[in-house]
Amino acid sequence: MVLALNFDEIMQACKEHYRPFTGDVPYIRKPRDLIRSIAAAAGDGRRPVIAEIKPASPTAGQIRQVDDPAELARDYEASGACGISVLTEPRYFRGSLEHLATAACVNVPVLRKDFLFDVAQVRESYFYGADSLLLISSFFHDDSLAHMIAACRDYSIEPLVEVHDLADIERSRAAGARLYAINNRDRHTLQVDRSRTARLAKHIDGVTVSASGISTVAQLDEALRYCDAALVGSALMSAREPGEMLKTLVYGGQ
User: Fold this and answer.
1) Strand, helix or coil at 145?
2) Tens digits of residue pLDDT in 235-251
3) Domain layout of the chain by residue ranges
4) How far apart are the first and last CA of the chain?
């Protein structure tokens, strides 16, 4: 079943079903550095790709049954991923925090991807093994985004701040963002426009990741003309052999 929801509706549903994480989480591990991992991939000749574990989406419905997130994460790592993104939103993307914890067995940074809005979710993300997490800029006021970014850095987590337009970029810059994701998918219509990457990247002072709508080496190379890395999810999850497809993206044509 395909769920025709936009980002605002999903966020509202997440807030309605939210149960705050209440655990006390001491700082006992240093998160892996996604910015450094992106640079390392480019430095050793790989195309920097953050490979995603995404069982479903509102536009595609069920994409792939994920019985062993650790196995898929290790496959991605062996195939050259500079990072691994794990969906944890359960209702529309069929992810889970257990997927995150299991996938964190790898040696590359692991990103928690969800519709996050509360500082308690930063502690929760760290507890379950995240090295970075996604913050969608448009869902925050300036002060609240800065507060979330600061909460992340209390745990040495550098968040990936998602932007869709110039207003998002300015809000994120003012809040202190260093790592940006340009989402090519419109948050209202869910339609993909890959040209958004080129339009917005020139306005960003920071490390940039192009996300959504990338499924070929040509599309990846176009994104990397403007960004430091790309995030690929649905294309990998719908492939017969996700690791082999990732190898093609990371190393193909080289």
Assistant:
1) helix
2) 999 999 999 999 999 99
3) 32-251
4) 39
